[in-house]
Structure formats: C-alpha cells, structure tokens
C-alpha cells in the first residue's frame, strides 16, 4: 500500500536538500522528519519553516543516537531549547517503558542511562 501511495504521489520521500524553497500546504504524511537528531540546526529550521496552511509537521529522533561529527550541534536538541513553550508546538518524550522491541532492549537502555549519568 505504501508503494502504491508513493507511485500515486500521495507520499513523497525527499531529502532535506530538496526542501528549500518549498511550502507544504495541506500536508501531513510527507512533512515528517525521521532521525532528526542527525540534522544540523540550519536543516531543522529549514524543515520546520516549510510548514504551510492546513499542515502538520512531525519530527522524530533519539538524542542518544546522534551520528553527527563530534562537537557538531544537533538540530533536534537545539530545536527543543528554541521552541519549548512556543504555542502550537508540543514535545513528546519516550523512555525505556515505551520500547516495543525485545524486553531486554528496555533493560539495555536503562543500563546505558545509568552508565552515562553523572556521579553524585
């Protein structure tokens, strides 16, 4: 079904590089940024400012899985500090309780979180 929707133009997969200059009106399904932890702040701003009338944007990402070069800022992390409290923008956070993979994965996530917490 997804392949069919792509063929019909209902769903479009486009790299961020092709989003500049576009406005996405009446769009939801094709205004999704996945793995946004790997965007730069400039890319994130560009993506978010493509939002048109009748549209919604969804941004997903995991700040524990950033693949940007060491020291490079993440657009996802920056967007949280810039946009927290802006009317019309909501943030949803997940924890190991939301893991839907093997039960061991939740325990692995917990172990890594304990390991990276600063010592008191």
CATH architecture: 3-Layer(aba) Sandwich
Q: What is the CA–CA distance across the termini?
A: 52 Å
Spans of at least 5 consecutive residues whose pLDDT stays below 50 are: none
Q: Tell me the structural class.
A: mainly alpha
Walkthrough of the structure:
- GO terms for molecular function: ATP binding.
- Belongs to the PhoH family.
- This is PhoH-like protein.
- InterPro entries: P-loop_NTPase, PhoH, PhoH2-like.
- Its main location: cytoplasm.
- It contains four helices and two strands; from the N terminus they run H-E-H-E-H-H.
- It is 31% helix and 3% strand.
- Strand 1, helix 2 and strand 2 (58-59) form a beta-alpha-beta unit.
- It starts with a helix and ends with a helix.
- Strands 1-2 form a two-stranded parallel ribbon.
- The chain is mainly alpha-helical and 120 residues long.
- It has a single domain (2-95), classed as Rossmann fold (3-Layer(aba) Sandwich).
- The model has no long low-confidence stretch (mean pLDDT 86).
- The chain is globular, with a radius of gyration of 17 Å.
- Helix 2 (41-48) packs across helix 3 (75-83).
């Amino acid at each position: 079904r997804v392949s069919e929707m792509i063929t019909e133009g209902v769903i479009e997969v486009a790299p961020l590089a092709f989003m500049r200059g576009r406005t996405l009106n009446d769009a939801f399904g094709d205004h999704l940024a996945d793995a946004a932890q790997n965007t730069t702040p400039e890319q994130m701003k560009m993506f978010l400012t493509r939002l048109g009338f009748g549209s919604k944007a969804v941004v997903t990402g995991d700040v524990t899985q950033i693949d940007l070069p060491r020291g490079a800022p993440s657009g996802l992390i920056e967007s949280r500090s810039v946009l927290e409290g802006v009317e019309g923008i909501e943030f949803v956070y997940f924890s190991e309780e939301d893991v839907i993979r093997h039960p061991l994965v939740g325990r692995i996530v917990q172990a890594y979180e304990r390991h990276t917490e600063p010592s008191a």
